Amino acid sequence: MLEIDGLSVAYGETLVLRDVALQVQPREVVCLMGRNGVGKTTLLKSVMGLLPARAGSVRFGGRDLSRARPEARARAGIGYVPQGREIFPHLTVQENLQVGLLANPAVRRVPEQVFEFFPMLKTMLQRKGGVLSGGQQQQLAIARALVAGPRLLILDEPTEGIQPSIVELIGSVLQALKSSGQVAVLLVEQCFEFALKLADRCYVMEKGAIVLQGATADLDKEAIKPYLAF
User: Dmax of the chain from CA atoms?
Assistant: First the structure.
């Protein structure tokens, strides 16, 4: 489904990603782990076309998106939940969700399944996004990415700074998506146990490169931990 090959990205003259290769197959949850500052968010932004690649390719569903604009990647079926959520604070919950529909003109209204995943949102449709708590904003950000029916959902640190009950809810939603087989997931996550509970495969980054990868069941958990220490 998602095939990243030889991807290199630089900020100015500073190379941040170095020849990265990563794949996500249909119905699969893949976790990308590593310390802060090793290039995880840069990789996700490059996949979404928010940062240009110096070299390499990004293919999705057999289509080369390496030079496609972010909106074209969204319309191809990639949903993105950035770190920090980035909801629209001056729009209502309902308006935020309607913005998500722009990624797929074939979907005319917010699917009821979104409210089944996040019941809180249905009670707050007219509330401004900026007055929501961090956990509520995270639910809104994930829901906004799901309303267009993506084939791949990319999440950047979805549990960061979130209370345990909301972390548990997000985990249950991702597990339900995985079980449905309709959505593949690429997850950047620092919470070791949360990631390994969900992921089929893991990649570990260090200094802009993939240093470990494999099926979650086969990876040496103790070998991963040094790459996550701060």
Answer: 49
